[in-house]
Amino acid sequence: MTVRPYRKNTTHAPVPGTGKGKATTALDVTDIYVDDGTGHNVISILKNLGDGVVLGDIELTFLADTIKTVDYPGAVLLITDQTGKV
Predict the structure, then answer these.
(1) Are 41 and 33 in contact (CB under 8 A)?
(2) pLDDT tens digits for 37-51?
(3) Which of 20, 75, 79, 85 is such that its CA lies 20 to 30 A from the CA of 63?
(4) pTM score
């Protein structure tokens, strides 16, 4: 997981969903997007702290590698979003 500080006046493109994260106090997860810095597919987990937003990126390859390590006979594991999209 990559944790990157939010900086005003940054040259990176805004993370999709950060406006939504600023509007709620609940923990939120963004849709999949391409990280501007790495070019990898990621999701971001964000939390509004009142005077700012804490954001952590998780690369989808990390999630896929984690799923591959599960050794449970007969199990089928999937990564889905909150709507059930694989």
Answers:
(1) yes
(2) 889 899 888 888 888
(3) 20
(4) 0.60
